Amino acid sequence: MLPRKLTAADAPSLAVLERACFSEPWSEDGLREELANPLSSLWGVECGGEIVAYGGWQNVAGEGYVLNIGVLPAFRRRGLGACVMQKLLEEAAATADFLTLEVRAGNIAAISLYEKLGFETVGKRRDFYRNPTEDAILMTKFFK
């Protein structure tokens, strides 16, 4: 399954995925706004007409920032997160100097994936996440 570029029509499906993956999900309206943002690029993987994995990033003046990566629980551990991240990295490498992200300190699976993709830990934000409260690990992959 290859990722495809997402559009405003995908916002309802993305909102379902967000609620299944995150304690503080983006709203459908928020997702629709991000999909219309010319600085943002969101990609998703479909299965049976449903978006089961997605990710997005923003490019601001050559600096890349991962907005979110999510995979429905029933579809995890199948390489879909890595597939989406590869697409984001491919796009970012062509137009940005680096790509950075935040990840929950306790999300060992995601941290491991990011390390395999060449991200380095560059910092920490204390108590960044809520529900539950947790530190964010800052990770960056430098292209140039």
CATH topology: Aminopeptidase
Structural class: alpha+beta
- The arrangement of helices and strands along the chain is EHHEEEHEHEE
Q: Count of helical segments?
A: 4
N/C terminus separation? 30 Å
Helix content: 25-40%
Give the low-confidence spans: none
Mean pLDDT: 95
Strand order of the largest sheet: 1-2-3-4-5-7-6
Q: Could you tell me the strand content as a percent range?
A: 35-45%
Q: What's the CATH class label?
A: Alpha Beta
Q: Number of domains in the coordinates?
A: 1
Determine the CATH superfamily: Gcn5-related N-acetyltransferase (GNAT)
Radius of gyration over C-alpha positions, nearest whole angstrom: 14 Å
The CATH architecture term is: 3-Layer(aba) Sandwich
| Largest sheet descriptor | 7 strands, mixed
Shape category: globular
- How many strands appear in the DSSP assignment? 7
Account of the protein in words:
- With 144 residues, the chain is an alpha+beta fold.
- α1 (11-21) crosses α2.
- 31% of the residues lie in helices and 39% in strands.
- The protein has a 7-stranded mixed beta sheet with strand order 1-2-3-4-5-7-6, with helices on both faces.
- It has helices at 11-21, 28-36, 80-95, 108-116, and strands at residues 4-5, 40-47, 50-60, 63-71, 98-104, 120-129, 134-142.
- The termini are far apart.
- The chain is globular, with a radius of gyration of 14 Å.
- It has one domain (4-142): Gcn5-related N-acetyltransferase (GNAT) (Aminopeptidase, 3-Layer(aba) Sandwich).
